Amino acid sequence: MAKQPKNAIEPTRAVDYPEWYQQVVKAAELAEASPVRGCMVIKPWGYAIWENIQAVLDRMFKDTGHVNAYFPLFIPKSYLEKEAQHVEGFAKECAVVTHHRLEAGPDGTLVPAGELAEPLIVRPTSETIIGEVYAKWVQSYRDLPILINQWANVVRWEMRTRLFLRTAEFLWQEGHTCHATREEAEQETLQMLDVYADFAENYMAMPVIKGEKTADERFPGAVNTYAIEAMMQDRKALQAGTSHFLGQNFSRAANISFQDKDGAQQLAWTTSWGVSTRLIGALIMTHSDDDGLVLPPKLAPRHVVLIPIWRKDEEEAQVVSYCQDLAKELRQVEFSGGKVRVEVDTRDLRGGDKVWQHVKRGVPIRLEIGPRDIASDSVFMARRDKSPKDKQGVPRAEFVAKVASILQEIQDALYQRALAYREEHSHDFDDLESMLAFFTPQNADKPEIHGGFARAYATEGPEVQAILKQHKLTARCIPLGADEPPGTCVFTGKPAARRVIFAKAY
Amino acid sequence: MAKQPKNAIEPTRAVDYPEWYQQVVKAAELAEASPVRGCMVIKPWGYAIWENIQAVLDRMFKDTGHVNAYFPLFIPKSYLEKEAQHVEGFAKECAVVTHHRLEAGPDGTLVPAGELAEPLIVRPTSETIIGEVYAKWVQSYRDLPILINQWANVVRWEMRTRLFLRTAEFLWQEGHTCHATREEAEQETLQMLDVYADFAENYMAMPVIKGEKTADERFPGAVNTYAIEAMMQDRKALQAGTSHFLGQNFSRAANISFQDKDGAQQLAWTTSWGVSTRLIGALIMTHSDDDGLVLPPKLAPRHVVLIPIWRKDEEEAQVVSYCQDLAKELRQVEFSGGKVRVEVDTRDLRGGDKVWQHVKRGVPIRLEIGPRDIASDSVFMARRDKSPKDKQGVPRAEFVAKVASILQEIQDALYQRALAYREEHSHDFDDLESMLAFFTPQNADKPEIHGGFARAYATEGPEVQAILKQHKLTARCIPLGADEPPGTCVFTGKPAARRVIFAKAY
Fold first, then answer.
1. Chain A from 248 to 267: CB within 8 A of any B CB
2. CA-atom Rg of chain A in angstroms
3. Of A298, A390, B273, B284, whose CA is between 20 and 30 Å from A379?
4. Which residues on B lie below 8 Å from A138 (Cβ)?
């Protein structure tokens, strides 16, 4: 067996993909499990990525006419109960507030006291509480549309949690819009799906498939759910964002009604759409490698890190000052609607330790700068999308002139690599047997990495669900705009209107 | 009696100050009570102000070396119990999560199920949970300092709530830092107090007094609490931000200890500091008038609103297009680290209704533009800090050239007006009788507006507390840097080291 190059992350993706994921999260200092069951601590480096995600999405939402607002954390139990499918979907895993103080119990310890007349649910999503508020705001067609987004925390009491991918509490944004017509609400739903796809592809460098969810995978209470689906490096699908056309289900439950232009009373049409800190999990699993996190430059908290290297104490001042000067110059360069974000790492640590820390944290460009580089007025550059050993000397002026285009090159390279990987592992199937073979591990060395996206004609219903469940597969989505002739369902042999994408999924 | 000018807000401040406040919040569409007891809905205009507050503070925090992170919403009951004063301070009013699902009860309705082994408290503040996490992060002096801020929602089960000023759930930021030495932690505490004062004075245009809290007013568990105190227009004090030196109290409770440079084990020194959506209440009560909200330009969601006015249908296109052009030009102008924020109000509404809506919402500059103004290439300008009737024609080019300086002029004028008001109603007292007279309503026409800030030598203790309580007064703070000789306590006649500011308070 050939000698393996040493990797910063153990185990590698091939050996144990789920554990590799946990180790990348740890090595990049993104998040950790908290002492509170199921809740995570998002550490500064992870939170800085979230701040960048927020900044870009928030601008996109505002550019499409939305404004932000804030609604209560708590939902009275009776509100949740108003929409039958909705409560069915969320009642099984929700945090319930039943008391409003603590007081000394018989044994001296504090016990819950002040029982509430009606229990409050910590919001798992806010359709019901926002619906109650909109019902008060909407009287006439002139009050519509309402185009509001909320940045918030939500809680779903998950039993098996995984940092970023599935936690009891997570951060997200939830858009809630309200319209006078079905058409307008449907357009809004699809518009926000497009915004999410644009964000995923052009900022996360993550190719996605836009599609409609099958009935079984719909948001509880929605008429239609649309999603963007991405392929992770273990070839599983990850739903990265959803946009729901809620029809009149929630406006009926909360009585959001208005007088139309003709004086008739109508129920409003609503939508909701959201992405969460789960996107950070998607980011990790799309690009990272066996040396740790790889970040698309547009979302990286730092674009360039400068690592001053010196041997003799008398060299330190010169090297550090050269780096500070260069950093100042680089911070003037425009990239992706802002300036290049630069760090000079002057910590009292070995150069090699610093390099590996920045590799593991996914900084797109590292510059190592020592007295010899200064003498030749150049920098020693390494790109995170290439091997850690692949370093090259670049004249300083050339680097400054090119840094924005190098960052864009890295951004594009990550997207192309992810797209090629997805295409390589996406196949059409016309019979169940070959489709199931596709999902059977072929390589004992890579137990977690197999399968991919299988496109096949399919119907919906209990029979199909049973087969999917048996093989741990899920219908990911019906891709939009496929425009294919009808075919035959691979599961039932019945006529099927369209192809569906199947995959194992997060 | 002279004829009163008609006001947009009823009642006026003089007639019923608390009700005036509620009506301004309503008329400016800032927030409303939600269907969930004690929780508010922050409406888009109110939330946009909060976003501006966040943007400025977040930059200030980062400029002073802090990073953001996120910690769990829930705090296990046992953590809260670790610091005796802390739990004493918060146990009486906290939301307690006791169950993690709902299931059908005997009568078919859903009832809480899945009782938790240990109740969770919805964070009223995060010292205890963050302390537990820091205890894991801190091993050596090399891990210090930790300089972290969190933007989050918190819950304190207030029985008597008031929009922005006191609500069960509110939004805030809480900084939590951890240091190797007492000196460094004390410096951090005072540095953040300075940041808050800078923000209050230079962005909110709200003069504040920086001071130390007396023992009775300290944060539960703190060694020292510092605050910025502002005077509202009813002359009551409002605590607008606090910075706490926590000593080793929380590091002892959570065992945040580290090995110092000499190899000895030490307890860390911590601080915490926060401001909340309460600042919006402070903003309202500092500047607003009987026509509604008045906003300092630096925090206004819109700086300039253009109201196109036309009579004949054929004029509409010309007027609107002139306004759009001017808006485009204005949006290029720099103001307060960004660009001038401009809205063209083209809604199908009467011009007068639009004007009053923008008056009530506090937009700093209104431009009314009709065919005659276009003919003379000028705009008809009104400033929100002046009377609604005070409008003046200004040549368009002159307005564009001056808009940033006019905004700064408004910003400065608001600050100066608030400062003059506070100075007018701040007095030193050497005897209790005259001090109590100061706090006695003198004018039956303005039942809610009286008193102010009384500075008097004072000691602390139950005797002083009893007198204060009897007269509904509170010790606001001991102003920093007063540097006065000792004097005699107005309450007890005992020697007192320093003057304290007393006031009625929010």
1. none
2. 26
3. A298
4. none
